[in-house]
Amino acid sequence: MIPKERRDQILALLEAHGYMTVEQLADNIYVSVPTIRRDLNTLAKEGMIRRVHGGASHINTEYLEWPFDQRNRVQLDEKRRIGKAAAEMVVDGDHIFIDSGSTCYYMVRYLDSSLKITALTNCIPTLQELSRKPNITVECPCGEYIASLVSVTGSESAGYIRSRHARIYFASVSGIDAEVGFSDRTNMVTPIKQAMQKSADLTYLLLDHSKVFQKNYYRVFDFCD
After folding, report:
1. How far is 218 from 64, CA to CA, in rounded Å?
2. CA 18 to CA 16: how far, in whole Å?
3. How far is residue 221 from each of residues 7, 70, 107, measured CA to CA in Å?
4. What are the E-state strand segments in 92-225?
């Protein structure tokens, strides 16, 4: 078993149980105690778990997602080029859904201000950027605001989206892999992403190269989607 797969199993076990000892983790994953200790130390340094005496505890996945401002400063050149290409796919009279990803935010910045379209997003910075374009009708679903994601989420939001229809859904996820499909670090906005995908004719995933071959715990889309 490669280290990445082993550490993903550790994260899944800690999420399910809250806390586990080193020995319990070793028994569940069928590896040695020293190997588990090394994995726990690595995960703790990455901020994925909390290391405690004799074992480790789960950290709420809300805190695993990078703050939006920090994500906005990574892979900037790629995000701008992807955003510009995506913006060119929008035509006058369109109805579009826009995900809460930072690359989607850059797509909005390149939208032609003369276009008369309707755009729905659950991302507050994206909503603010859209509001600067006077010809765009902007919608934001109701729901719970998650400060770390600067986004609105929840069952109410998903229900609101399901009552709408869009020609294009501009989506983002944390990883794409041939085996896992499209995955995220957190499942807090998964219902929103899935509702948008089901209610749109086309889905465009706006991903920079750092997302390729990345496997995260929460699956969002399959390739058939």
Report:
1. 12
2. 6
3. 22, 25, 21
4. 95-98, 118-121, 137-139, 144-146, 151-153, 166-171, 175-177, 181-184, 200-205, 218-221
Give the end-to-end CA distance of the chain in Å, rounded to a whole number: 29
Phi, psi torsion values for 91, nearest 5 degrees: -120, 165
* Beta strands at 144-146 and 49-52: parallel, antiparallel or unpaired: unpaired
Say yes or no to pLDDT of 20 above 60.
Answer: yes
The string of pLDDT tens digits covering residues 51-78 is 888 899 876 544 445 555 556 555 778 8
Whats the size of the chain, residue-wise? 225
Report pLDDT digits (tens) over 172-219: 998 999 999 999 988 888 999 999 999 999 999 999 888 899 888 899
